[in-house]
Design a protein that fits this description.
Layout: H1 11-45, H2 55-68, H3 75-90, E1 97-100, H4 106-117, E2 122-125, H5 129-137, E3 143-147, E4 165-171, E5 174-175, E6 185-190, E7 200-207, E8 221-228, E9 231-239, H6 244-253, E10 260-267, E11 271-272
Parallel strand pairs: 1-2, 1-3, 5-11
Antiparallel strand pairs: 3-6, 4-6, 7-9, 7-10, 8-9
Helix pairs in contact: 1-3, 3-4
């Protein structure tokens, strides 16, 4: 019987050990699926709904995973496996479809959707971001995936509302160097109301004049913007700890008093997987909206 150098174990013993671990993993997967089924049934009986995506719970689980991760297996591999397990279990009780933004490269959108929602979820390509917003708004629990671009071809976020689709998550959630499925995107979903537990609040902001100053100086990130002859629309993100009146004051302090400012969702702050697990991702700039960049 051959021995591995310095291991003290024979190859057959190691194979037996691996087989036993695989059996435990399989049993744990079956147990988790059964528990998920029980949770879904209890939620329905309590008047809730069976949903594929629970962004706040998902963010908590990912944070715990990052904190306990150690060893040689890449963190991004564990993330993908974990997400696939979660979505496979929850999709047993849900017929949710994910609508994809047709304005982005289809292969990139498919990679992103498969990485985060697994292979058991129906993917529906749309014509553009506005089409995705509309599909989610009239669905019974479907999700939307919209690619984030600095300069949008249309202000699609104008159609977001509490009566329809809202921003519920930002991807990638775990920011890593040279990671797969790294297309920046937002997840849209219906919600009974604006989520008060989100780390980051998202606003639809509109200006009919110059947009001077650097919003980033006030802690405001421009996720995407659209320029037209009448001014500029922007989808902005800021700490959810601030009430709307303080967000308005922050815009004014940046020299950019908006004509319209309304909250259209929120998301958990992404994790910087390259540094301290407790650190969240910090954007580097504000999409190039420097002084005088956007004009009437």
């Amino acid at each position: 019987m051959s021995q591995l150098p310095d291991s003290g174990l024979a190859l057959d013993d190691l194979r037996t050990r691996i087989d036993a671990i695989d059996a435990r993993i399989h049993a744990a997967l079956m147990e988790r699926a059964q528990a998920e089924s029980g949770f879904a049934a209890a939620s329905l009986s309590a008047g809730g709904t069976s949903a594929l995506f629970h962004p706040e719970r998902d963010a908590d689980m990912m944070r715990q995973m990052v904190e306990r991760h150690e060893g040689d297996l890449p963190l991004v591999t564990v993330e993908h496996l974990w997400r696939d397990i979660i979505c496979a279990c929850t999709s047993l009780q849900s017929d949710t479809a994910v609508h994809l933004d047709g304005g982005a490269e289809l292969i990139d959108m498919l990679d992103l959707a498969r990485f985060y929602f697994g292979f058991s979820v129906e993917l529906v390509p749309g014509s553009d971001a506005a089409d995705v917003v509309g599909a989610v708004a009239v669905s019974q629990g479907d999700l939307g995936l919209v690619a984030l671009t600095d300069r949008a071809e249309m202000p699609w976020w104008r159609e977001l509302s509490e009566a329809g689709a809202l921003v519920r998550a930002r991807l990638p959630f775990l920011v890593l160097d040279e990671r797969p499925a790294d297309l920046p995107a937002l997840v849209l979903a219906q919600a009974d109301s604006l989520v008060e537990t989100a780390d980051i609040a998202v606003y639809d902001a509109r200006w009919t004049d110059l947009l001077p100053g650097r919003l980033m100086d006030q802690g405001i990130e421009v996720l995407s913007f659209f320029r037209s002859a009448s001014g500029v629309d922007a989808l902005i993100a800021i700490s959810a700890d601030l009430p709307e009146e303080d967000v308005f004051k922050a815009c004014v302090a940046a020299g950019a008093e908006p004509e319209v400012l309304r909250r259209v969702g929120g998301y958990a702050a992404p994790i910087d997987g390259n540094g301290d697990p407790d650190e969240t991702f910090e954007p580097e700039d504000d999409a190039g909206l420097g002084e005088g960049d956007v004009r009437k």
